[in-house]
Specification:
The complex is a heterodimer of chains A (147) and B (103). Chain A has one domain: SoxY domain (Immunoglobulin-like). Helix content of chain A is 24%, strand content 38%. The radius of gyration of chain A is 18 Å and the shape is globular. Chain B has 103 residues and is an all-beta fold. Chain B has one domain: Immunoglobulin-like, CATH 2.60.40.10. In chain B, 0% of the residues lie in helices and 52% in strands. Chain B has a four-stranded antiparallel sheet, with no helix packed on it. Chain B has a three-stranded antiparallel sheet with strand order 1-2-5, with no helix packed on it. Chain B is elongated and about 55 Å long. Classes of the chains: A alpha+beta (147), B mainly beta (103). Chains A and B meet through helix 1, strand 4, strand 6 and strand 7 of A and strand 3, strand 4, strand 5, strand 6 and strand 7 of B.
Chain lengths: 147, 103
Amino acid sequence: MKRRTLLKASLQLGLAGIVFPQIAIGAYPTKAFLAKEIPEVLREAFGSADIGESKQIEIEAPQIASDASMVPVRVSSGLENTESIALVVTANESPFTAYFKLYEAPAFVSTRIRMSATSDLLVVVKADGVLHTNKRPIRVGLNSCGV
Amino acid sequence: MARTLKIRAHEVDGQVTVKSIIDHPMETGRRKIQKTGKKIPPHFIKEVIVSRNRKIVMEVFWGKSISRNPYLSFQIPGRKGDAITISWLDNRGNSDSATAKVR
């Protein structure tokens, strides 16, 4: 029995390995990750820096982060047909942090981010082809990590 | 290669909540070795792909501002017994993938 599950697991692994290179061609937004200024980041990532605010984007994050190198963040979008969620930390040297492309509802993601200083966490959501944004200030404790 | 991925997936009312942790240093390229003053070169995960029953449901692009040993959690529709596969690829071309059954 054990051998069988092992065989199955390795088979699935092998298949995933074959599938991976094809998808990996998906465009990595290099320019957005390299951009240093917020308007530039938004322009590189979304083609526009002028984005309207939406209260339907919910951000859960600590008001004061005790460990700046591990700030837990939870984002959920109440907007219909959410296509992508992007996280931008305004104070970081490379502000563009993460980009989630979603193909199926519900739009909820959670991860842990680094912050170099007290600043805003900007969340940009694309829903039905329209961009929306919301932000949350996060205060950082003493030991920041300088990203 | 040692196992780098831990995945847990459980279903409630047709919604699957997936939680995963990837074992990865996520070096930013700004840290220095104290003795020599040499910079540790960047080494981070660029891309994570999530599929359910071999159909892609989410693509994730990450930069250097993601914490070490990245945590990733999300929700997708699904049923018990579905196979959730997560694969990652870093800037040095290393990759790994793992599959978990939805409980």
